[in-house]
Write a structure and sequence with these properties.
This protein has about 325 residues and is mainly alpha-helical. It has one domain. The chain is built from 16 helices and no strands. Helix 2 runs antiparallel to helix 3. The longest helix is centred in the middle third of the chain and has 41 residues.
Length: about 325
């Protein structure tokens, strides 16, 4: 039976280096999506995680925009020019992304520019930390069952994480031996509870280390961008959005923040999980969510990534100078699948 470090090593072989922000995020997102696609009735947590990780990827694309090899967007392109570029056929995730993109447009101060980059780095680290914490367990369970997970969890993980996999395992056994509707519902409910236990573990035990370090601006930015696109929607109707749950005023004032674990968990319980229950119950190979998951599993670039790539191409044509002060070196957004 492989050790935890060996499970980690197996996964790392499938991922780009940690320094390749966008490419690594897309590879992590793809693994989550593939786990769900293999067993959609079982790996509910991985399904939700694929959409959350994809949204983190939006933030990492903004890092690329702020530190383009052809010039920093915030310093070298006017709002009118940016609007003209976006009108070339790219509808960037509706009004939320419009709000998000307005932030780098306003970053004329170098200190503020770096502050936002530091916050985006923390978001990236949180994404990596969640994968390190639970990715190995999904690989271990799908390969060696519950024993492979139980043999490698730390003492601090004996609660939500191990209990989550135990409930998944018990629910799977109940479903396989179900003799009626009551047995089937009992097994499905155990799987649901196990998935929620895993989700709570990551939200309460892993993410606070990174969110607590963010600036006030970064916390507002994270709250604005906290939404999950389960079905490839062009707007926010029907999608779980932190700002829609609490209201824009609460976010801007700082009275509610997705970086606050209490606020975040209330949003998850009252908005994210009910909407996930709806789309997962209707899941099938012809549904919109399946198409989204297949695209994520295949690392297909999103429209935002395509738009950022376009900006990198048109910068020279607009005569924009190179940014010699770029502090974060990132690869091209156009990555092979």
């Amino acid at each position: 039976m492989p050790t935890r470090d060996e499970w980690h090593a197996m996964l790392e072989q499938r991922l780009p280096p940690r320094t390749t922000y966008v490419a690594r995020n897309r590879a992590i997102t793809a693994l989550y999506a593939r786990w769900y696609l293999q067993e959609p009735w079982l790996f509910q947590w991985a399904g939700m995680a694929s959409f959350a990780s994809d949204q983190v990827g939006v933030a990492l694309v903004l890092v690329e925009m702020l530190n383009s090899p052809h010039g920093a967007l915030a310093e070298q392109i006017s709002s009118a020019q940016a609007k003209g570029l976006l009108e070339l056929g790219f509808e960037l995730y509706g009004r939320v992304l419009g709000m998000a993109l307005s932030i780098p447009m306003a970053l004329h101060d170098a200190a503020t520019h770096q502050l936002l980059l530091d916050d985006l780095e923390l978001i990236k680290q949180g994404n990596d930390a969640i994968f390190n914490d639970i990715g190995w367990a999904h690989l271990a369970y799908s390969t060696g069952g519950l024993k492979a997970v139980a043999a490698n969890v730390r003492e601090s993980e004996q609660g939500d994480l191990l209990d989550g996999f135990r409930m998944l395992d018990e629910g799977a056994h109940q479903l396989s031996g179900a003799s009626g509707e009551a047995d089937y519902r009992a097994g499905a409910e155990l799987i649901r509870k196990g998935s929620v236990a895993m989700l709570r573990h990551e939200q309460m035990n892993v993410l606070p280390t990174y969110f607590d370090q963010m600036s006030d601006l970064g916390k507002i930015f994270a709250s604005v961008g906290a939404w999950l696109d389960f079905e490839g929607a062009t707007g926010l109707n029907g999608q779980p959005w932190f700002g829609g749950h609490y209201g824009a005023l609460a976010i801007v004032s700082g009275s509610r923040s997705v970086t606050n674990p209490v606020d975040r968990w209330e949003w998850i319980e009252r908005d994210v999980l009910p909407k996930w229950a709806r789309v997962s119950a209707a899941y099938g190979e012809r549904c919109a969510m399946h198409r989204r998951l297949v695209a994520l599993a295949n690392q297909a670039p999103t429209m935002l990534q395509q738009a950022a790539g376009l900006m990198n191409i048109v910068y020279p044509a607009l005569g924009l100078r190179s940014n010699q002060q770029a502090r974060v070196a990132l690869p091209s957004l156009v990555q092979p699948a």
